[in-house]
Each structure stands twice: as C-alpha cells, then as structure tokens.
Amino acid sequence: MTKAKNISPAQMIDSFLRRVGLGVAAVGVTYGLSALEVVLPPKEAGYVDTAQLVLSILVVLTIFPAFVKFMLARKRGVCKSAEDNSYMAQMFKEAAHHAFSATFITLIILEVVSKAIKPAMPVHFFIDIALFISLSFFAAMFFKLTGADDEEDDWEDAGE
After folding, report:
1. Contact 10, 85 (CB under 8 A)
2. How many CA atoms lie within 13 A of 46 on its CB side?
3. Confidence band of 157 (pLDDT split at 50, 70, 90)
4. Using CA atoms, how far apart are residues 90 and 84, in angstroms rounded to an integer?
5. CA neighbor of 21 nearest in space, from 105, 83, 73, 94
6. Of 87, 100, 99, the residue nearest 146 (C-alpha)
7. Can you tell me the distance from the alpha carbon of 43 to that of 36, in angstroms, rounded to the nearest whole number?
8. 3-state secondary structure of 13
9. Of the candidates 146, 158, 157, 148, the residue with the CA atom closest to the CA atom of residue 3
10. How many CB atoms lie within 10 A of CB 45?
11. Span 10-39, mean pLDDT?
12. Looking at 22-26, 33-37, 65-69, 145-149, which range is the least confident one?
C-alpha cells in the first residue's frame, strides 16, 4: 500500500506509458476485428462487433484512470522534469519511429494488394488493415524494447 503512495514521477510515467501501450494494442486489435468483420458472414460479424465493444470499454477502463492521475501530477508539477528523462518515454518514441516506418511499408503493400487481389473490397477495409498493422506493430515494438527492462526488474525482485 505504501509503495503505491510513494511512487516516483518516473515510475508514474512508466506505468502510464505501459497502460497506453496496452491500450494501443487493444485499439489495434479492434481495427483488425473491424477489417475481419467485412469478410465474415453477418452472424459472426455480430460477435466481432460485440468483441469490439468489449475491447473499447477495456481500453477506457485501463487508460482513463492512469491518464487522470498523470494529468493531475503534471498540473501539480510533479512529473514535468521526469517526462523526457524516462526510459519508457524514450522507448515509446523509438517504438513510434518503428511503427511510422512500418505504416509506410504497409500502405505500399496494401496499394498493390488492393489493385491486384480485391478491388471490390470497401476502402475502410484497407484503412482498418493499415491501422491494425501500424498500431499492433507499435505496441509489439514498445513491449519488445521495454521487455528486457521488465525481466531485469523481476530478477531483482526475486533476489530480495
């Protein structure tokens, strides 16, 4: 209990960014489900629609409390100096750079695929695919880049 109250600004930022990473992954899956909904029969598409709603609610429940806590800490001036120095913030930026590159590659591939394979598919299908790949790639890169740090923390905790 006292650990949560005595959290440092850097730990607060790290926790917030991890939740944002999870939220981005869930939103990416939601876009993937939206693309899947186009190719499924109506009955199964209804199940996918329900799954999208559940994921959307989970994203809000995961990120909103951390966002409010983070914004209140920023308003009080607690987190302002720690934001740029945070390891997680640097990894978040690096993952965004990788995702940006992956987005362009995805758009080029989807342009070729949309003309060659399925020109009759609706435009939002290809947009959903691009968003799914971009957001999922971002989340995967973020957790890959920060995964080694998490393993070190777990090892240190186990040794105590």
Report:
1. yes
2. 2
3. very low
4. 7
5. 94
6. 87
7. 13
8. helix
9. 157
10. 16
11. 89
12. 145-149
Tell me phi and psi for residue 87, to 5 degrees: -60, -45
Question: CA dist 48 to 20, 33, 138, 154, Å?
Answer: 23, 6, 23, 36
Q: How does pLDDT run across 30-51, given as a tens digit for each residue?
A: 999 999 998 888 888 889 989 9
Alpha helices in the chain (DSSP H): 2-5, 9-39, 42-75, 87-116, 123-159
Contact 5, 34 (CB under 8 A): no
Name the residue ranges covered by the structural domains of the chain.
Answer: 9-146
Joined tokens for residue 50: 């329900």
Q: What pLDDT does 12 receive?
A: 79
Q: Is residue 159 scored above 70 in pLDDT?
A: no
